[in-house]
What we know:
4-stranded mixed sheet; single chain
Amino acid sequence: xxxxxxxxxxxxxxxxxxxxxxxxxxxxxxxxxxxxxxxxxxxxxxxxxxxxxxxxxxxxxxxxxxxxxxxxxxxxxxxxxxxxxxxxxxxxxxxxxxxxxxxxxxxxxxxxxxxxxxxxxxxxx
Length: 125
């Protein structure tokens, strides 16, 4: 199941970049590589219950432990860049892109992972 979940996550991450693939935006390849490199650490933190996906499409710590905070910060920074690029291409806002992404992430989350609902409440799937 873990392998299946990781594959689904990878597919979703790469699907995010399909929108950017046709654009002239040149940073997609580098961000895609960094995100793929961080994915195993993020999956481990989610499994441990330390990190969840908030309702804006960003990672957030759900408790006091801040293990690998640098990885989470870097991932969120790259996600924001991607959301901004997608928003520009689709004539919307980065916030709306992030909210839509949060819904996709929640739909594909593994049982036991922390998710923040639209009201800001944290719940395990």
